Amino acid sequence: MSIAHTVLGLETSCDETAAAVVRLDAEGRVEVLSSIVGTQVAEHAPYGGVVPEIAARSHVETIDAIANRALEEAGLGYDDLTGVAATAGPGLVGGVMVGLAFGKAVALARELPLVAVNHLEGHAVSARLAAHIPYPFLLLLVSGGHCQLLAVEGVGACRRLGSTIDDAAGEAFDKIAKTLGLPYPGGPALEALAEGGDPESFALPRALLGRAGCDFSFSGLKTAAARQAEGLTSEVERRNLAASVQAAIARQLAERTDRAMAAYAAEHPGQPLRFVVAGGVAANKAVRARLQETAAARGFSFDAPPLAYCTDNAAMIALAGAERLALGLSDPLDAPARPRWPLDAAAALSNPTHVPGRKGAKA
Ligand code: KG4
Ligand code: ZN
Hints:
Nucleotidyltransferase, domain 5; five-stranded mixed β-sheet; binds 5'-O-[(R)-(carboxyoxy)(hydroxy)phosphoryl]adenosine
């Protein structure tokens, strides 16, 4: 790592249009010069979820202004950049194409190297935006689309230890929140409702408890919670069910992480044991608290990104790009947008949790 990199990051894989400028200096210090996130929540709310066509159109309309604002807030112009990093997948491909095409245009016009970033690699480095966390570390990535345990050995070198066999944790939060009549996105709404509720009041299934491996499953919990939600008569009961659901999700995440920690520790004898949780669900306080206890009991350090870097943002994409540029890695201008792009392609193909279709393994 010999020179400093100042990278414009672009993120358009779901329902946030985001741009950021991040500097990675020669000593590996990270500085977020700006991070702008334009959310489309209001545009999708009437439909109870993200509508891909609306998302893509909205990205087209706003990416230009958001990228310019990111540069303005950083006090820089396009000439000050040393690279451009854009999410190239996995995600809603219409949106991914918008950010990637914008990034390619900037790269071409300004003769800058382009990095086509895997969105999951962005989440994997997100905690490094605010704290010095050396490789390797054990990562729990919990978002609306993903729920995976990964051994992150270095830049772009991830090995998957476990993954969900049905829904992602954020998806479970969102779907259960919907049955409780809460607005989208359901995770933060359910967390707010759960406040003051009794997490022991409803008995909910404990999926995969004691089962070998580190995979997750949330579909049984979702069905059970929907059934319980039907008979609720009072606000107190709604609070109690929300608290019980939140505790059940946190418990499963902690139990499976505990198994992954044991495996990771055995594979890294004599090395510092570090644990990082990232992704939108890492914003949940009950989830964080439970994982923090698990890490302490296993002798792992605990890190989670600040809340603004848990959910989708472009600073994490810029940093993932900068780390690759520092290693001399970049991508050609015909790099494709990939709706599916497993972070650990080898594990995804040898042990598919979703049977790969014609488009290849899902992330
Ligand atoms: O990382 P993210 O912004 O997007 C994806 O890449 O999926 O994660 C969004 C997910 C949504 O499912 C949302 O409900 C969940 O993260 N989420 C939360 C909280 N904040 C966001 N879930 C539980 N508690 C929260 N406080
Ligand atoms: Zn994400």
